[in-house]
Design brief:
It is built from two helices and five strands; from the N terminus they run βββββαα. By secondary structure, it is an alpha+beta fold. The protein has a five-stranded antiparallel β-sheet with strand order 4-3-2-1-5. 20% of the residues are buried.
Length: 88
């Protein structure tokens, strides 16, 4: 799941879009580059997110390689949202 976009399904951040930057058996750590940065990711239960598999493979690889920045996360989320608006 690392490197994929995810919607929050529960909590005060419901419907917010994040990138998964780390995971273990129960938890994922999420960042959006603005409110939740790479230095201070949001820990969330896997049950409370919806993974979006329609994401650029280069972004997935850059997160795995730890070469991603908060700015690239913000840009990728913005582009994804713009793309979704164009499709509808």
């Amino acid at each position: 799941m690392v490197g994929y976009l995810a919607y929050s399904l529960a909590g005060h951040d419901k419907s917010r879009l994040y990138f998964v930057i780390e995971e273990n058996e129960t938890w994922v750590w999420l960042a959006d580059g603005k409110f939740r940065t790479l230095d201070n990711p949001k820990r969330k239960n896997k049950k409370h997110i919806q993974i979006i598999k329609d994401v650029d493979d280069t972004m997935v690889q850059s997160i795995i390689d730890k070469s991603v920045t908060n700015e690239t996360i913000k840009r990728a989320i913005k582009l994804y949202c713009k793309d979704m608006m164009d499709k509808s």
